[in-house]
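Lab notes, practical 5.
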Amino acid sequence: MRRAAYWLPLLLVVLAAAGCGGGEDSSSPFVPTSGNEPASAPVCPPDWKPGWQKLADRIKAPVYCPSWMPDPLTGQIDGSWNAMKSVLEDRSYLMGFLWYETNVAEVHVNLRGYPDHTDIPTCNGRPCFNDLGPKRTIAGLDIQVYNVNRGADTWHVLYAWKTDGSLYTVSQHVVPEFGLSYGRVTSNLDRIVRGLVRIDPQQS
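Output from the prediction step:
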């Protein structure tokens, strides 16, 4: 009994120490997060919301602000990582967020919207989104996964959904050598979709 009383506290200390170590350093901007944690009570961050609200007002249609993005990205339009910003005459938009370092890899996420259109767009006469993956329901949205995509979504896994007669998508680049395997990317996309916040246009 005395031995048990002596070793039990020591064992608890060792187990606690093991539980605290061995994980990824979430403070490092170069290590992608797991994307497995649920996004609770999604809120479009205060620094991000004005840009998404301005976009919704410009195209006169709802947009989806991400409440979470994989490190080191943020979802701030006109922010440091907003590398692509396109709004076409048909009011469709592409907001691309990119971290890139030469000879290392990249973290690249695109968010798109096609107001009043639900057809898959074409890229040089071919569907921009191709190779159907599974259909899933995430946060109440009916998601269609596409595994082979073109244009700005080349080498990306893409999630597409239709809401109120409009098509929306979010995609991320698969970079296995950087730890962004297909499984990691789909986990990230799951978390992005769970954390989307719909921003409606303001009445003018």
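Observations recorded by the TA: The chain has a mean pLDDT of 84. The chain is about 20% helix and 35% strand.
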